[in-house]
Design a protein that fits this description.
Keywords: Signal. Residues 1-17 form the signal peptide. It comes from Triparma laevis f. longispina. This is Peptidase C1A papain C-terminal domain-containing protein. The protein has helices spanning 6-11, 65-75, 83-88, 112-118, 136-148; strands spanning 45-48, 79-80, 99-100, 104-105, 121-125, 152-157, 178-187, 200-203, 217-220, 225-226, 250-251, 257-263, 272-276, 292-293, 295-300, 307-314, 329-334, 339-343, 348-349, 354-359. A hairpin with a 3-residue loop joins strand 3 and strand 4 (104-105). Mean pLDDT is 92; it is low at 2-23. The protein has 363 residues and is an alpha+beta fold. Strands 1, 5, 6, 7, 8, 9 and 12 form a 7-stranded antiparallel β-sheet that branches. A 4-stranded antiparallel β-sheet has the order 2-20-16-17. The longest helix has 13 residues, at 136-148. It folds into 2 domains: 30-262, Cathepsin B, Chain A (Alpha-Beta Complex), CATH 3.90.70; 269-359, Immunoglobulin-like. One 2-acetamido-2-deoxy-beta-D-glucopyranose (NAG) binds at residues 189, 191-192. One 2-acetamido-2-deoxy-beta-D-glucopyranose (NAG) is lined by residues 46, 50-51, 271, 300-301.
């Protein structure tokens, strides 16, 4: 999916995430009719993976939208997996996208569950096979509960002008075009049923920056479902690459979504999120050179007077959950009230996996 115009993509330079909001009137990086700024009302609380930051996918081999979506949400749990590695954790499946046994397989609804399991995540799946049709309304309720519960959703979406069939037979199409991280929810009442007007989803397009500040795109839950004709809530969406990913819809009859809820056993960590100065990673599959990414670890809810220990693990074989738990660096920082951001002085190789764990235990 979304593999058009690859050469154009790889020519664009990497932009810097989270640059300050400029005073310019028009935000060229926010594609109409999308909205790229959060609601301002103080009645709102933000749920889900509140520290997630949108990133940019590779465009080759069918497009790495599924990998990228998993990567973005994984970073909000303190884990970086390269897009390449995520595919290598995905088995062959039916329907089948791009890939082979060496390179791994394109993430689709048919193989995402074993992939998430192999990657060490816990998750909840929407039961698309057994839910009553049309699924949309119930699906939104599920989304709200997952996000309020602190999960981040790998969401399969339909995009204006696309085929609405991902590798299914023509007579039995698989109705999605793209996969995006739907990582947060702004709600005025987390315990109520979905409020179509006031509950607002936040998602990435997979082509960051999503707005000048790269906060992502903001959509009210009442405006996200549509038919495959896309002449309802997505009527105003623009067709084509670089536009339709920024204003997708969720198919109202049948939908696929996987909520990543955490890491498998054995890791206790403070509430953290990792974001990089770079919003993309070099595409080593199309010949680009591995680069060092520059990580920032955000620790939420820190308290002055308490010391925080940040441990970094390089490579999945050294991750604590593998049983090995081989630490590469340990840093102790002093807490300040509210939260803090620690910049890792050591580069992060873009083509492998790295993990940060923060504890308040004395070391
Ligand atoms: C920090 O944690 C608090 C309490 O859990 C939460 O309300 C707040 O949204 C978090 N802040 C960020 C930036 O995630
Ligand atoms: C939130 O919704 C619940 C369930 O509908 C309701 O009982 C509660 O009063 C609402 N809270 C507020 C602050 O409106």
């Amino acid at each position: 999916m979304k593999f058009q115009f690859l050469s154009f993509l790889s020519l664009t330079a990497s932009a810097v995430a989270l640059h300050p909001h400029s005073s310019s009137v028009v935000d060229d990086t926010c594609i109409a009719p999308g909205v790229c700024l959060p609601p301002t009302s103080s009645d709102y609380t933000k749920f889900g993976r509140t520290l997630a930051v949108p990133r940019k996918q590779w465009g080759d081999s069918g497009g790495f939208c599924g990998s990228l979506s998993i990567q973005v949400i994984g970073l909000s749990y303190g884990v970086y997996h390269s897009q390449d590695y995520i595919r290598k954790c995905a088995p062959k499946s039916d329907p089948l996208g791009h890939g082979d046994d060496d390179l791994g397989y394109e993430i689709l609804h048919s193989n995402i569950e074993p992939a998430l399991d192999n990657l060490g995540f816990t998750f909840n799946s929407w039961d698309w096979e057994n839910q009553v049709h049309p699924q949309g309304k119930q699906y939104l309720q599920w989304m709200k509960e997952e996000l309020v519960g602190g999960g981040g959703i790998v969401q399969f979406v339909i995009c204006k002008g696309d085929a609405h069939n991902s590798y299914g037979p023509r007579r039995d199409p698989v109705p999605y075009d793209h996969i995006e991280p739907f990582f947060a929810l702004y709600s005025k009442n987390s315990t109520s049923a979905v409020d179509a007007d006031s509950d607002i989803l936040v998602h990435g397009s997979d082509y960051s920056p999503d707005g000048e500040d790269n906060y992502g795109y903001f959509r009210s839950m009442g405006g996200i479902l549509d038919s495959l004709d896309m002449d309802g809530n997505c009527d105003a969406a623009q067709a084509g690459y670089g536009k339709n990913e920024m204003y997708p819809c969720i198919y109202q009859d049948l939908t696929y979504g996987y909520s990543i809820t955490g890491l498998k056993a054995g890791v206790e960590t403070e509430e953290i999120g990792v974001f990089f100065d770079e919003i993309d990673e070099p595409d080593v599959r199309s010949g680009e050179t591995v680069a060092d990414l520059h990580a920032n670890v955000i620790i939420n809810g820190t308290v002055a007077g308490i010391k925080y220990t940040i441990e970094r693990y390089d490579g999945v074989d050294n991750f604590p959950e593998s049983g090995a738990g081989v630490v590469s660096t340990t840093t102790v920082v002093d807490g300040v009230d509210g939260g803090l951001t620690w910049k890792d002085p050591q580069g992060v190789p873009s083509d492998v996996s790295t993990m940060w764990v923060v504890t308040t235990k004395a070391k």
